[in-house]
Amino acid sequence: MWQVVPGLAQDSQFSPCAEDAVLVFDASGSMSGNGWGYGSESAHNVSRIDRVRYALGKVLPTVTRHRRVGLVTYGPTRTPSLFNQCDNIELDLPPTPNAAAQIMASVESLVPAGGTPLTRAVEQAAEMLDFESEPGLIVLLTDGEDTCGGSPCQVGKELHAAAAQLTIHVIGLRVKGLSWTGESNIVETQCLAEQNEGLYLTPENTDDLIDALEMTLGCPKISRLMEDQKSHIEASSGCTWSHPSLCAMIEKTQPRGLRSKPKG
């Protein structure tokens, strides 16, 4: 279990965020499944989408007082003209002040269905942020890989090359025990974050998810890690910098070949 970073949940510690943000929300059919993977908390009691709703309900009211947040969803068909499950991407809300109630209303109305066009959803979120001329932040929340032919890593490189200043964080649900996600698919979505100076986090319970959302959406933002901090993660197994819980989460999710080796 990793700990909440001190101060992120307290209004007195917040300052206005310079970057607008868009939450890219996976509402594909697999989000109706239970738990976080084999051996996870309450694996058979509550659906993943309900756990995410709960976590967002805890985080958004504070975050949206200090950051303009928008919403892109994918999965279920809500536009009658969209019959292909890979076309089911909805631009629900542009970055808006005090958007918690609007975002929660949209998320609460979703019934998980359809595929996972996460790469195109991220591209559309970037366009919503006017990423070529304005700084922006995307938080992708997904429980699987792209099932619609997209290449998250390649698109991550293209967005980075064209962006004024874009950060993309990826929160991967159910990575542990996800039968169709192998190491290569984890690397693909992790690459999307790394190409855009973001974090790749894999919460294993609801408390972890709340922490991950606070880390990625909250203010004061830590959306851009210093290069020496990233190097420290790769070079050492004893992460001792200012956010040890975050360091431990990143370290835990590295594919075997990328993990740091213990000293001695």
From TrEMBL:
Pfam families hit by this protein = VWA_2
Question: Please, which domain of life does this record's source organism belong to?
Answer: Bacteria
Ranges for domain VWFA? 20-217
Q: Which PANTHER family match?
A: CALCIUM-ACTIVATED CHLORIDE CHANNEL REGULATOR (PTHR10579), ZINC FINGER (C3HC4-TYPE RING FINGER) FAMILY PROTEIN (PTHR10579:SF43)
Name-wise, this protein is VWFA domain-containing protein
Organism per entry? Methyloceanibacter marginalis
